[in-house]
Amino acid sequence: MTLEKLGTVPLYSVGDRVRVRNAAPLGHIRTPFYIRGHAGVVERVCGAFPNPEELAQQRDGLPAQPLYRVRFRQQDVWPGYRGNPADVIELEIFQHWIEP
Amino acid sequence: MGGLPAGKVKPTEHAYADWELRVDALMMLLVGVVGGGKRMTVDELRKNIESLPRADYDKMGYYDRWVISLTQTMIQRGVITTDELARKLEQVRGLSPISRRKRTRRR
């Protein structure tokens, strides 16, 4: 599905530095705890999809939320990370979980 | 799970028990991956798995969690009632042990 078709405009583009919201709402959340509050860079815009938090509660999840693949440095995410400093981890994060 | 401290993951292959294959097939039908129906979303499956008490979650195998969760979802959506479920379980318990499906554990 194209973003235009869904009427959903992505707020961020490839290369943007973004931060994951540090929040702990109840319910089914696709954003892992370990990445909340961390900063990364948008690697790609994946499209837009119905919000899984709403789908989990038997609602339609619309309007669709843009989904981004965000790249984080492993050493930023895991305290005391001893691997290659260039190692990265990429996660797909919905727009409503992202802050500038 | 979810970045919590854990031991090493041992990757091992295993054969699926008949009941596990049936739970998988049931899920594919309920979310509409196969067949024309769509009775639930995979997000509801996940929500109800995450709602399991931690101690139960840790004891259960992969398809144990699935079958409990999709049953909860069918009750929440009004597809089945708790009374129907209870009666069916009673009926299944009444079957001779030899006809029950063999259970295997995953991981």
The biggest beta sheet of chain B is recorded as: none
Distance between the termini of chain A: 25 Å
Number of strands of chain A: 5
Tally of contiguous helical segments of chain B: 5
* H-E string of chain A: HEEHEHEE
Q: What's the CATH class of chain A, please?
A: Mainly Beta
| Largest sheet descriptor of chain A | 5 strands, antiparallel
Mean residue pLDDT of chain B: 87
* CATH fold name of chain A: SH3 type barrels
Q: How big a fraction of the residues of chain A is strand? A: 25-35%
Write down the secondary-structure element order of chain B.
HHHHH
User: So what's the oligomer here?
Assistant: heterodimer
User: What is the arithmetic mean of pLDDT of chain A?
Assistant: 93
Q: Residue share in helices of chain B?
A: 40-55%
- How many extended strands of chain B? 0
- Helix and strand composition category of chain B: mainly alpha
Content-based structural category of chain A:
mainly beta
Q: How many domain modules of chain A?
A: 1
Strand order of the largest sheet of chain A: 4-3-2-1-5
Q: Helical region count of chain A? A: 3
Structure notes:
The complex is a heterodimer of chains A (100) and B (107). Chain A has helices at residues 3-6, 52-55, 74-77, and strands at 17-20, 39-49, 65-73, 88-94, 98-99. Chain A is built from 3 helices and 5 strands, in the order αββαβαββ. Chain A has a 5-stranded antiparallel sheet. Helix content of chain A is 12%, strand content 33%. Chain A has one domain: Roll (SH3 type barrels). Chain A is mainly beta and 100 residues long. Chain A is globular, with a radius of gyration of 14 Å. Chain A starts with a helix and ends with a strand. Chain B has a domain at 15-53. By secondary structure, chain B is an all-alpha fold. The longest helix of chain B has 15 residues, at 62-76. Chain B is 52% helix and 0% strand. Chain B is built from 5 helices and no strands. Chain B has helices at residues 18-31, 42-50, 54-59, 62-76, 82-93.
